[in-house]
Write a structure and sequence with these properties.
It is built from eleven helices and eight strands. The protein is α/β, with parallel strands linked by helices and 280 residues long. Strand 1, helix 3 and strand 2 form a beta-alpha-beta unit.
């Protein structure tokens, strides 16, 4: 880890009252995940990505420290992620979950060594640029050589025009492209943002059809690629519907406001807050 990065993480203060609040929220989400997993058809563990967009690095540090020592955090904005990655410990595993711009994919993969996963790949061109960025990083930092960047292919299962993602029938082609033409990427699985209205409207005992669509699609992609279904994860479920997603077999949920609380407007967000000495 660069010396500057160690100094920033060491000097950053965490408000103890805020830390207590965050840890209580986090523990509650973990309990709900465990309860939902108990009734899931999948026996695989569920990864919790704490979505920290527009929240200060202090909040992330509070959950990264004991008692939780959490590693997986998600960000939506590239510049914000880069700034936080320089402030916080290198062992954090960053997930980029926001909309990708093709021209920003290469620097995203090149500038953040501990970028663990990009979850919003929806074109071959974006995958190619991420692959080039990871290749450039490996050339500079030999410790990452042979360690591919994980990616999820984002699928628009709800058909909503405002949402990114490939159409379900295009998923196999993009997954094959990642597998065959991007040697510095690892196809981790499929991701979707289900329509919240569908989660709210489903009858008791039923689940959001978007989650069911992605689960079925995984089987089709695995067959077409000639791999085991268990080799592809499902990333689906957010604050409002992660329990339903887990019951449908999600391997990863992305939870933000339930842990961190209401987000500020983007123009008011601070990458790091000043905590007075004596309060931390």
């Amino acid at each position: 880890m660069p010396a500057q990065q160690i100094d920033n993480a060491t000097e950053m203060r965490v408000d103890p009252w805020r830390a207590e609040q965050l840890c209580a929220n986090f523990s509650s989400v973990l309990s709900r995940i465990q309860a939902a997993a108990a009734s899931s058809s999948s026996q695989a563990p569920v990864r919790l990505v704490a979505v920290s967009k527009l929240k200060p690095a202090n909040d992330i540090l509070a959950l990264h420290q004991l008692p939780h020592s959490h590693l997986h955090f998600g960000e939506n904005y590239q510049q914000e992620l880069l700034q936080k990655s320089l402030l916080l410990p290198r062992d954090i595993r960053w997930h980029f979950i926001g909309a990708l711009q093709t021209n920003k994919c290469k620097p995203l993969a090149e500038q953040i060594p501990n970028l663990w996963c990009v979850e919003s790949v929806d074109t071959g061109k974006k995958a190619d640029q991420l692959d080039k960025g990871r290749q450039a990083l490996c050339a500079k930092e030999k410790s990452y050589e042979g360690a591919p960047l994980r990616v999820f292919v984002q699928v628009n299962t709800s058909g909503e025009e405002a949402k990114s993602g490939v159409e379900p029938h295009e998923a196999v082609q993009l997954c094959r492209h990642v597998q065959e033409h991007c040697p510095h990427l690892k196809l981790q699985g499929l991701m979707t943002i289900g329509a919240l209205a569908r989660s709210q409207d489903v009858a008791e005992g039923k689940e959001n059809e978007d989650f069911i669509t992605l689960k079925d699609l995984r089987g089709n992609v695995a067959r077409e690629l000639g791999i085991e279904e268990s080799q592809l994860e499902l990333s689906m479920g957010m604050s409002e519907d992660f329990e339903s997603a887990i019951r449908c077999g999600s391997n990863e949920v992305r939870v933000g406001s339930t842990i961190f609380g209401q987000r500020p407007n983007k123009q008011d967000a601070k990458v790091q807050e000043t905590v007075e000495e004596g309060t931390a």
